[in-house]
Design a protein that fits this description.
Blueprint lengths: L16 H16 L4 H17 L1 H12 L4 H9 L3 H15 L2 E3 L8 E9 L2 E5 L7 H12 L3 E5 L5 H10 L9 E4 L3 H8 L5 E5 L2 H12 L5 E4 L5 E4 L5 H12 L12 E5 L3 H15 L15 H16 L3 E4 L18 E4 L16 E7 L2 H9 L6 E5 L4 H9 L4 E4 L20 E2 L4 H7 L1 E9 L15 H25 L1
Parallel strand pairs: 3-4, 3-6, 4-5, 6-7, 8-9, 8-13, 9-12, 11-12, 13-14
Antiparallel strand pairs: 1-2, 2-16, 7-15, 10-11
Helix pairs in contact: 2-5, 2-6, 3-4, 3-7, 5-6, 6-15, 10-11
């Protein structure tokens, strides 16, 4: 497997490097000009075909990288889960490409103005390890829709998936359209420092900060899709049994290694014991066995296994109640399989690392609360999460929670419900991300909206800004200033 050496497309050697590939892509982009609707759709179709034609191989590769990962879950999450978003993008390319006409009433007189969505050029994408196929292909599809060329740096944490992508892509794309880069952290650091026209990164806030810093050296704009500790509030009038069941199931998606997994849950004080009982039983029913269960997802590597186990033990050492929901007869956590039992943690305080650090594993923190303002105050005192969850009816309490907290998205009564609409933007805010994609937001992220204005008028509109300045011009300026002041003063009085 490749470690710190880059592999770029077909017919290139490691000595050519990503910088040479970037130069090739930019040269062909400039020579060919903006691609047609047909070519953009064709590139999207080839991208989808690359994944669908080789779906079995991709799922097998990611399962091998993890050690143990549900094939059914991987097919849904890595392959099928992205198809509807890409289809929505493909179908809307002609509409999104249209210029927006401005000042239509002035066109007959000879003044024409429009805003033209233009491709940026070459887009760099740095992919994560938790969903290495989906979370590189989705932004690539948006970049193709906007008319760009794409270079993808695959995660070194999932080397089999990375090598398979690098070996498969040249069968569907010339490297001047799409190039795959593999390699270790040194390659990733060099990749982030290339002068792309836009850089897209999915991963942790800590690495996202480094990526943003590297991109800033070349003034490269970035989209950062990061993580965070996603809160859940079980409302006072919620169905606690349903909420506990769904939250426990959601925490275990991909072994908890998902950026939108619930991290900690607020439950009304009177319902905490019931919630924990139902969550515990749900987890037992889901996983009668763990170590030998091929559908139970391992920690992706030893480092992540050790980190999650360390969070649990640190919480235990500081007095937290730890409820390990493992099958009888199985000793967990198990270093050999890198599997950790579903774990419910209570009595967490700020001395514990788990109170601040994103878990990214099969661990759920449960907190009691007496008033909803407690939950709002706690969420607002922490960095903004990628998603905030609410279990309960859509009522005044829910709307108050939405309007008085900040998060990338809000989902009510279901895991990742905010990602269901294919047209909805997806992204974080603050420490959980910068920018968004999915739907038109992805097209916009990889486009420059270029204003084009032309005049066939017999006089210059802007010539009044140049010398000489006549007396009538000064009088006109004074009148305009007086009118503007009067209008603004009137608005301020009405507001008061």
């Amino acid at each position: 497997m490749t470690d710190a050496v880059g592999v770029i497309g077909a017919g290139r050697t490691e000595h050519d490097g990503p910088a040479a590939t970037l130069a090739t892509q930019r040269q062909t982009f400039l020579a060919d000009g903006p691609p047609s609707v047909a070519l953009r759709r064709n590139r999207i179709d080839r991208l989808v075909a690359m994944v669908l034609d080789n779906a079995e191989e991709f799922v097998t590769a990611t399962a091998a990288d993890y050690g143990s990962r549900s094939r059914s879950a991987a097919f849904f999450a890595e392959i099928l889960g992205m198809v509807s978003v890409i289809e929505h993008t493909r179908s809307n390319v002609p509409q999104w490409m249209r210029s927006a006409k401005l000042m239509r009433a002035a066109r007959p007189a000879g003044l024409r103005a429009e805003v033209v969505p233009s491709p940026l050029g070459v887009i760099g994408i740095i992919g994560p390890w938790n969903f290495p196929i989906q979370l590189t292909v989705l932004p690539a599809a948006a970049a193709f829709a906007a008319g760009n060329r794409v270079m993808i740096k695959m995660s070194e944490v999932t080397p089999r998936a990375a090598e398979l992508m690098a070996g498969t892509a040249p069968r569907y794309f010339d490297e001047s359209e799409l190039a795959i880069v593999t390699g270790g952290p040194d390659v990733a650091a060099d990749f982030a420092g290339l002068p792309f026209d836009h850089l897209f990164f999915t991963g942790s806030p800590a690495i996202g900060a480094l990526v943003g810093r590297a991109a800033a050296q070349n003034l490269v704009p970035v989209t950062l899709e990061l993580g965070g500790k996603n809160p859940v509030v079980v409302a006072p009038d919620a169905d606690v049994i349903r909420a506990a069941t769904r939250i426990a199931q959601a925490r275990m998606v991909n072994g908890g290694q998902v950026c939108v997994c619930p991290d900690y849950v607020f439950v009304p004080d009177a319902h905490v014991e019931l919630f924990v009982d139902i969550a515990r039983q749900t987890l037992r029913d889901m996983f009668p066995t763990i170590i030998g269960n091929g559908d139970y997802c391992s920690s992706v590597n030893q480092a992540n296994f050790d980190r999650v186990v360390g969070l649990i033990e640190d919480a235990r050492a500081h007095g937290a109640r730890i409820d390990s929901v493992g099958p009888e007869g199985e000793v967990l956590p198990d270093p050999g399989s890198r599997k950790i039992a579903p774990t419910i943690v209570r009595d967490v305080d700020d001395r514990m690392r788990i109170a601040e650090e994103e878990v990214f594993g099969p661990v759920l923190v449960v907190r009691g609360y007496s008033t909803l303002n407690e939950t709002i105050g706690y969420v607002n005192s922490r960095p903004s999460p990628l998603v905030a969850y609410w279990f309960g009816p859509d009522n005044a309490d829910f709307r108050h929670f939405v309007s008085h907290t900040r998060s990338g998205g809000v989902a009510r009564n279901d895991f990742a419900a905010h990602m269901i609409p294919s047209s909805a933007p997806f992204g974080g805010v603050g420490r959980s991300g910068m920018g968004a994609y999915h739907g038109k937001a992805g097209f916009d992220a990889f486009s420059h909206y270029r204003t084009v204005v032309g005049s066939d008028l017999p006089f210059s509109i802007t010539g009044r800004a140049a010398l000489p300045f006549t007396a009538s011009m000064r009088v006109s300026a004074d009148l305009a200033l007086r009118r503007a002041r009067t209008r603004t003063s009137s608005r301020l009085r009405k507001f008061r």
